[in-house]
């Protein structure tokens, strides 16, 4: 068995461990930077070293000029902003793996969802977030999801920007109170509109309005370098919303989709433009519709040529659907437990996802020590390297949260704080509809797609737009709005506004 040698730049993960459990510092286990856009998986039971592996990778990426995005669910990754503290354990691990350990602090940007938590607030407008992701957060079924798509379409066509949550609520309230407008949108029933409205008002009651609105976060801000060419690590601090996993995992998906839209094609690159760590990835896949899963698989496939590497972080590979798993070139598998019959089954399934090797993987995977992993990556020619039992390097930044004053100092000094620090509430659907309600008769309210209802007409007037809305093609598009591509087609055909930033 050999370590992994690459001619180009690489990340050092650790060194090879022999069958006797001893580390061989001459056999380095690395990941080529040019292969990072072929994505990866970091998996393992709780407490086995996944977060520290992320820390080790992020530190080296930043040092080599690659920006990093990661979600900090427990708050322990804020340590990236502070130099590590030497200890007996760190020194002995460094010696074992042949690491010249020196404390460093990385250039870090702290972000938070809507300002909940320690970080520059990031928000998405309702329109950019879109009906598919919103349906996922609200746990809507597929019919409700396509109805939500029709509501977005209606608002767009009637010049009612959906920027924040109250805009969307106002539009649905208007629709449910205006039967002729509602009936103009073929396929949206009062009952479904009511269900969506209830889901949204519950969501609002949980404080969700903070996450939507302007200024909208520009995903290009994740691609920053410092003046001396180091990659900035954007850490999305999530402890304050960790009880709302559907919300934050969907936001991560929005960020990734947004990146996909704004980044130009670059093909294969020597080093990635960004490495995106998708932590607690199972939350994204749990209960997701088939179309949603397809859109994740497709985003992962297509974002590669934009130079973005995505690493999913989760407990076992079974959390990841097969067509996503098949795209993950690098695998860092920390220890698995085998306490229950289900564990034993999951262990066997995990083993079957690895290339064949000389190891008894069931035994190795359950016997791995903390900060050890079974690793396979892609060689520079794209072939999987042999599975290697690896002792991971020790992080050189702080292995605990940064002190609150350090975090607050970083946030206060951030150029992003000036850009995103204060929410802006400009005129949008809510204001437009409130103004109409206050001053006008219902007859003057915005037109339903299909034009004003004709008094005395027994048959609703068929317009070109209505024909389109009723058409098989539109309905199937509205359904396939559940896929990113479907949304794109819907946008390009119906001209749904989307802010282009590049
Ligand atoms: N590479 C490493 N070098 C030194 N110590 C490590 C390393 N990896 C793990 N450890 C030790 O193991 C502990 C647990 O690691 P870590 O927090 O990364 O686990 P985890 O898999 O992220 O757990 P959880 O699922 O609970 O988030 C660390 O606090 C640290 O003491
Ligand atoms: Mg962790």
TrEMBL record:
Native organism is: Sphaerisporangium corydalis
Q: Where is this region: Disordered?
A: 440-468
Recorded superkingdom = Bacteria
Domain annotation Helicase HerA-like C-terminal: ranges: 24-501
Q: Indicate what this protein is called per its UniProt record.
A: DUF853 domain-containing protein
Q: Which Pfam families match?
A: HerA_C
Q: Where is the composition biased (Low complexity)?
A: 440-454
């Amino acid at each position: 068995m050999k370590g992994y040698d690459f001619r180009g730049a690489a990340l050092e993960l650790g060194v090879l461990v022999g069958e006797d459990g001893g580390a061989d510092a001459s056999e380095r286990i690395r990941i080529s930077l040019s292969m990072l856009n072929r994505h990866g998986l970091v998996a393992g039971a709780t407490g086995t070293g996944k977060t520290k592996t992320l820390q080790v990778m992020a530190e080296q990426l930043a040092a080599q000029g690659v920006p990093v995005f990661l979600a900090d669910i427990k708050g322990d990754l804020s340590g990236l902003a502070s130099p590590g503290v030497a200890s007996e354990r760190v020194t002995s691990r460094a010696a074992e793996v042949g690491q010249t350990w020196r404390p460093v602090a990385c250039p870090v940007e702290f972000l938070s969802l809507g300002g909940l938590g320690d970080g520059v607030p990031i928000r998405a407008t309702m329109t950019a977030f879109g009906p598919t992701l919103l349906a996922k957060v609200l746990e809507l079924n597929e019919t409700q999801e396509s109805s939500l798509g029709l509501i977005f379409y209606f608002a767009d066509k009637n010049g009612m920007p959906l920027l924040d949550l109250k805009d969307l609520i106002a539009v649905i309230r208007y629709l449910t109170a205006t039967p002729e407008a509602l009936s103009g949108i073929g396929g949206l029933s009062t009952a479904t509109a009511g269900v969506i409205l209830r889901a949204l008002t519950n969501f609002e009651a949980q404080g969700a309005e903070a996450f939507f609105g302007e200024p909208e976060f520009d995903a290009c801000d994740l691609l920053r370098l410092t003046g001396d060419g180091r990659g900035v690590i954007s850490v999305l601090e999530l402890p304050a919303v960790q009880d709302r996993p559907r919300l934050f995992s969907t936001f991560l998906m929005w960020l990734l989709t947004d990146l996909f839209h704004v980044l130009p094609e670059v093909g294969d690159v020597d080093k990635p433009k960004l490495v995106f760590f998708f932590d607690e990835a199972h939350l994204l896949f749990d209960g997701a519709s088939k179309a949603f899963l397809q859109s994740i698989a497709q985003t992962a496939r297509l974002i590669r040529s934009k130079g973005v590497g995505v690493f999913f972080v989760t407990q076992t590979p079974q959390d990841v659907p097969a067509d996503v798993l098949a795209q993950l070139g690098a695998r860092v598998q920390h220890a698995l437990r085998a306490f229950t019959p289900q564990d034993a089954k999951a262990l066997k399934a995990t083993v079957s996802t690895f290339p064949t090797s000389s190891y008894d993987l069931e035994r190795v995977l359950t016997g791995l020590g903390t900060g050890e992993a079974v690793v396979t990556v892609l060689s520079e020619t794209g072939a999987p390297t042999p599975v290697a039992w690896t002792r991971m390097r020790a992080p050189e930044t702080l292995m605990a949260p940064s002190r609150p004053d350090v975090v607050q100092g970083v946030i206060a000094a951030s150029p992003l704080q000036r850009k995103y620090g204060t929410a802006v509430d400009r005129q949008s659907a809510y204001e437009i509809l409130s103004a109409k309600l206050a001053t006008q008769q219902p007859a003057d309210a915005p037109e339903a797609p299909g034009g004003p209802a004709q008094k005395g007409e027994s048959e609703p007037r068929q317009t070109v737009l209505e024909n389109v809305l009723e058409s098989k093609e539109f309905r199937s598009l509205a359904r396939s709005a559940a896929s990113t591509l479907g949304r794109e087609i819907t946008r390009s055909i119906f001209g749904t506004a989307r802010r282009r930033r590049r």
